[in-house]
Amino acid sequence: MAADRKRLFITNGSLLQEKLISSSNGRYYPFHNFSIEELEKATNNYAPHCFLSYNLLGTWYKGSLDGRVLSICIPRYPNVHASRNQIINEIVNDVAIAAHMEGHFAGNCLKYHVQCHSINEVVDYRILPGGGVNEQQQWQAAVELALKCLETSKDKRPAMEEVTKILWQIERSLATFPERHSSVYDDGRIFMEEMIASYEGRCLVLQSFSGEELKKMTNNYHPDYIFCCSNIGIWYKGNTENGNISIYKISNVNWCEHVKNEFKFAAELSSHKNVLKLLGYCLETSIPTLVYESTGNGTLFDEIHFHPAPLSFHSRLVIARQIADLVAYLHTALSTPIISKNIKSANVFLDKHHIPKLSNFSQSVQIIDGEAFPTNQIEGTKGYMSPEYITEGIVTQEFDVYNFGVLLFELLIGLRLFDLFHLVDKEGGLLLDHLQNFVKWHSINEVVDPKIPKNEVGHDEQQKWEVVLELAFRCMVTAKEERPKMVEVATELNKL
């Protein structure tokens, strides 16, 4: 093992040095060489709570070593058929480019970050709640000023006199607006009146929490209490005398419809064992905060990809069955079917008994069976959105079927699904085409997630893999009319 590592170190290091020397024009780049042990120590052996995000570059972790805060990226490259030498060369190229950007990172990276995110995603989440349109304009002005101060060319940077003047204008503009807390109770009252009216007299057994109670439970929303982030908010673990709870602090400026949806559907479905149970709410925050049962083991995403003891195929199959049963319930058991639009591993929490709990109904819609819901606003996670939704902006029950097909693939093939997401971004085409190409060139043993324990795997187990694979393909057929109904999907999975 030590000999292999030394050989890899020498090979990779030689390639890196050659590339840097040839491209540096004589400049010196003081990179620090971290050992494997140092990175494992910094991330507590890549523990789930150190996971930051997954993007085109790879998997990102936060870490701390000798008092230094680190961001660590484990590269994942889109070409799933690339040889080891090709992957090494790509890594070397990335480091060489990073070396050239030394000295320009702050300005360039921040500009890229601002360009790729809305203002409510850029601003510190702790000051987001309550920000109206006017306040957002002030945030935008402050961000633009900061970027000007970070211009690469010193001639383009403003003088401090000008900076002071602009900051004074921003402060004065903010002062003309009333304190965000002044309308908290009015907003909350109106929100509750609308929610109660929508339930037509039915009883909502939910607890009302005070703002101080939630602060106490989360140690004033300390970052250490964060265990998950979604597209509209941040999840905190909360400690109470009666046990743990989960607190969903909404940080999306366009919160109103999202929260109404989340509140409405979560409250209506809370009795289902596979829906994260809504316990209560807090209206003493500018944006209502929602309180749920404890999520126990975190998300299915973390459990599949980052847990030190990977889920067995049997456990994954049980989870797939229960989620399929739930979605079939949403589509058939209610007077008006509910389309989740958000069936993905990051929205599935696992309790201490590994029972899956679907969350995030912020984008869900109700439509009459067999009809379509047209929308001009395409929102969701790339890779999970069905082709007809992207091209035509229509939502039907088949949208959830497609979603579930992608989830089945993730359960079956693991992180390589995200390699294929990146391949779609790079080369175009449909995810289904890239999945079919991947499966075509690999045996079923090579297709299945290498993390799945394969000891004592017999012929029957491999047959189940193939059945799940074929079912996932059927769920993702481009023509929505050819996809099976979720009741059929649930029935087939329950037969395995």
Structural overview:
- The chain is of the alpha+beta class and 496 residues long.
- It has four domains: 2-108, Phosphorylase Kinase, domain 1, CATH 3.30.200; 117-175, no CATH class; 182-293, 2-Layer Sandwich (Phosphorylase Kinase, domain 1), CATH 3.30.200; 300-495, Transferase(Phosphotransferase) domain 1 (Transferase(Phosphotransferase), domain 1), CATH 1.10.510.
- Helices cover 47% and strands 13% of the residues.
- The protein contains 19 helices and 15 strands.
- The strands form five sheets. The chain has a six-stranded mixed β-sheet with strand order 4-8-9-7-6-5, sandwiched between helices. Strands 1-2-3 form a three-stranded antiparallel β-sheet, covered by helices on one side. Strands 10-13 form a two-stranded antiparallel ribbon.
- The longest helix is centred in the first third of the chain and has 22 residues, at 2-23.
- 29% of the residues are buried.
